[in-house]
Amino acid sequence: MKKIEAIIRKTKFEDVKDALLEADIEWFSYYDVRGIGKSRQARIYRGVMYDTSSIERILISIVVRDKNAEKTVQAIIKSAQTGEIGDGRIFIIPIEDAIRIRTAERGDIALYNAEQER
Questions:
Q1: Distance from C-alpha of 114 to C-alpha of 18, rounded to nearest angstrom
Q2: What pLDDT, in 10s, does the model give residues 76-116?
């Protein structure tokens, strides 16, 4: 199993969400996050432009089976990429185990409905 974390532009969230659903990734978490990076965002407040070093982004967190990791990464890249500085990053982290609390199932079967696999 792999945990895929992607930090993307807020404006690309809907595109990424649609691409993940199209790739049969139906469950993920996302968070509003702020970070510091090379790109700067200008904000306009009451007609005055402010430069800020804090960049607003979305962090998407997904745990997938090994066989679904590459298609998940490719879906994110294709849908989040603009070619500009600040498109974001993807991190792939190995997951040792997963446990479904309701049934105590362990391993990658805990990620999905076993009935759908049969």
A1: 24
A2: 999 999 998 889 999 999 999 999 999 999 998 998 765 55
